[in-house]
Amino acid sequence: MPYSRTPATGPAEHQQVIRGFFDAFARGDTDALGRCYHPDISFGDPVFLELEGRDQVVGMWSMLLASVTDLKIAAWDVTADDHSGGASWSADYVLRRNGRQVVNQVSAQFRFEDGLIVRHHDDFDFRHWSTLALGRPTGVLVGWAPALRRRVRDRARHRLDEYLRNGSLISG
């Protein structure tokens, strides 16, 4: 369902945009997911500290969807007001590169402009995630050591840049 940019949006419409985002994410529909975002979207989380613009942000989701199997997304406690919103959500998936099962609990905050998400920030326990994604002892070390954490972030950013450079098509 495409979301139009309407200045007269409020809490109910913003909740609908958030739910639409998670529904699209659960289906792996990056076109629909991208339509929930304002063209000037900025995104941040413990791995991708700051991404700017729809191409980078939707490209990141597309890359992540391509790198997992058996994805299950659940969102709850969706709230919104005239300018911002939030949700709790979880991602349960298997990483293609190593077959490791990851269950990540995330807290999301959103800001809205013109009825679309203009700022999306996710927060999760990096130590827990790295232990599940990388295993022991590597994931434990990565979760605790700032230099290793930075290395994971740099690798993720490099992978995203390569993914975008190699022609991932992002519409919306």
TrEMBL record:
Record's protein name: Nuclear transport factor 2 family protein
Domain of life of the organism encoding this protein: Bacteria
Organism: Sphaerisporangium rhizosphaerae
Domain SnoaL-like: start-end pairs: 18-120
